Amino acid sequence: METENTAHSATRGLITALGAGSGVDMASLASDIAAAQFAARADRLAARSETLEAQISAAANLKSMMLSLSTSLGERIRVGDLSPQPNIANSAVASASLSGTRQPSGTFSLEVTALATSQTLASEPYSASTDPAGAGTLTLRFGTISVSTFTEDTGNPAVDITIASGATLLDVASAINGANTGVSAYVAQTVDGAQLVLKGEEGAANGFILEAAEDAGEPGLANLAWNPGVATGELLTSAQDAAFRVDGLDMTSPGNTVIDAIPGVRLDLSATNAGAPTAVTFDDPTAAITGAMQDLTAALNEIAAELRLVTEPQTGELARDSGARALQRAFSSLAGSIVIPGAAEGTPSTLADLGLSTQRDGSFQLDNDRLAATLARDPEAVAAMFTTGLHGVYATIDGIQRSTSVAGDPGSLSGSINRYTEQLRKVDEDQAELAEKQEDTRARLASRFAVSESRISASQSTLAFLQNQIAIWNGSDN
Predict the structure, then answer these.
(1) Where is pLDDT greater, at 454 or 374?
(2) Does residue 357 share a domain with residue 401?
(3) Which of 75, 137, 156, 358 is deepest in the core (most CB within 10 A)?
(4) 177 and 145: one domain?
(5) Pair 154, 7 in one domain
(6) What is the Cα–Cα distance from 247 to 288, expressed in whole angstroms?
(7) 333 lies in the same domain as 389
(8) Does residue 190 fall inside a structural domain?
(9) Are 222 and 137 in contact (CB under 8 A)?
(10) CA 50 from centre of chain
(11) What does the alpha-carbon distance between residue 379 and residue 186 come to, in Å, rounded to a whole number?
(12) pLDDT value at position 8?
């Protein structure tokens, strides 16, 4: 319809220009003729471009919906209500959450014998934070400290910090913080006076010493230097690793955040419980599975409805698209697909066992009674179907999603998008070429019409002269 209207519009403009008689706008006439000559092809290309854009949009939308379903289901299994959330009987010892690296299970014992600490130093007291501290260079060296012995970590280079002339104790703290070494500094107002406090990072390997090289003309930095066993300054806390036992096995960590010491679990240690291990257990996710299956069914139906719409034989953008047909086939066999290969006889292994079924129109339905019966009969086997492993409900949905995204497969939605995009690029090139040809035609006609217009103007001038002469002759007869 759009093509027909555009062509008629160009034709009407041409007829109007040609019927104008004298005073014809030759420039507009050239443009109208050129537009009329290329109008049908231009409209065909515009219609093709619109169709391809609709096909790309429809395929991309289906692909996005599948990715959203797969991602949300995976997150729900990894860290949401379908995951076996960890619990610690003695919550004062640590808090626990899922690390997302694997699916945890079982029961573990946890005994924390030491928390990770950072080294903290305090300088000798000054009368005020604005007291001059001297000038020169402070050097931080990193390593481990054992009683009065410092062992430098050569893989962690020493850092020199320049202290400018006239620097106060506050200026020294600012310079240390500006070096971004992992050692922070501040000035504490204590009962004894102003003291520079240095604090490193947790872990035995993050101990440090502070050396001073003074400017001879402005001494004082040596008062801030510190080495183990030296009288200047005060060691408030030593750097040490966290020490703990999981199921009686000794472990250490440079920090109080421990990942996967219990598989799939993040522990944030907060207190010790030496000699009194606490239990780490996991919630049973089967109570959430009914809601998850209802949500999964609704999400599948949303995608299936969109799939039916875009593949409708007469009006669907993807009526004959191979990627859309592949997704339809995957959906039609989804309920009966084996999601747990090798499952023991009598245990659930398909989504149909969880109550999912496919209807004639391609939609999905959930039999809540069948799901409830399966959960009551074998809750552990049902829970095992909701993992992020190689098999299960998530792996099946994710496999379908991945099959839509194989760019090198012409039978996938990504393959369709690439194909349509390439065709659209060719249409854009054809439109640009057509516009050039139309402009060439317009310019050529305009040039010819300019000559004609000049001749017409000359003829009109001659006619006007003759008419004036005749008028003069007629007047002289009177």
Answers:
(1) 374
(2) yes
(3) 358
(4) yes
(5) no
(6) 29
(7) yes
(8) yes
(9) no
(10) 30
(11) 56
(12) 46
Domain that holds residue 269: 86-115+242-282
47 and 31 within one domain: yes
Q: What percent of the chain has pLDDT over 90?
A: 71
- Determine the Cα–Cα distance for residues 350 and 214; give it in Å rounded to an integer: 76
Phi, psi angle pair for 87, to nearest 5°: -130, 140
Residue 437 CA to residue 336 CA, distance in Å, equals 58
Which helix (H) or strand (E) covers residue 404, if one does? helix 393-404
Distance CA 444, CA 113 (A): 93
Contact 46, 363 (CB under 8 A): no
Note whether residue 424 is domain-resident.
no
Mean per-residue pLDDT, 354-378: 95
Residues ≥6 apart with Cβ < 8 Å to 105? 84, 282
AA letter at 340: I
Q: 322-332 and 286-310 are packed helices; what angle lies between their axes, rounded to 10 degrees?
A: 140
Instruction: State the pLDDT at residue 453.
Output: 62
426 lies in some domain: no
pLDDT tens digit sequence for 379-410: 889 988 998 888 999 999 999 999 999 988 99
* Rounded Cα–Cα distance for residues 8 and 30 (Å): 17
pLDDT tens string 267-280: 999 999 999 999 99
For residue 248, give the H/E element and its range.
none
Q: What is the structure's pLDDT at 171? A: 97
- Can you tell me the distance from the alpha carbon of 158 to that of 168, in angstroms, rounded to the nearest whole number? 23
Task: DSSP for 255-282, please give it.
Answer: SSEEESSSTTEEEEE-S--TT--EEEEE
Return the SS3 of 110. strand
In this structure, is residue 407 part of a structural domain?
Answer: yes
Closest CA to 383 of 291, 297, 282, 284: 284
Neighbours of 161 (CB within 10 A): 19
Q: Would you say residue 477 has pLDDT above 60?
A: no
- The number of distinct structural domains making up the chain is 4
Same domain, yes or no: 219 and 265: no
Residues 108 and 247 in one domain: yes
Beta bridge partners of 379: none
Q: Among 175, 210, 237, which residue terminates a domain?
A: 237
Query: Is there a single domain that holds both residue 393 and residue 465?
Result: no
Question: What is the pLDDT at residue 464?
Answer: 66
Residue 344 CA: distances (Å) to CA of 337, 341, 354, 357? 16, 9, 16, 22
Regarding beta strands 159-163 and 149-152, do their DSSP bridges make them parallel or antiparallel, or are they unpaired? unpaired
Q: Domain end: 372, 388, 416, which one?
A: 416
Q: What is the dihedral of CA 218, 223, 224, 228, to 10 degrees?
A: 140
User: Which position has the higher pLDDT, 22 or 89?
Assistant: 89
Tell me the per-residue pLDDT of 278-321, one tens digit each, with 9 for 90 and over. 999 998 888 899 999 999 999 999 999 999 999 999 999 999 99
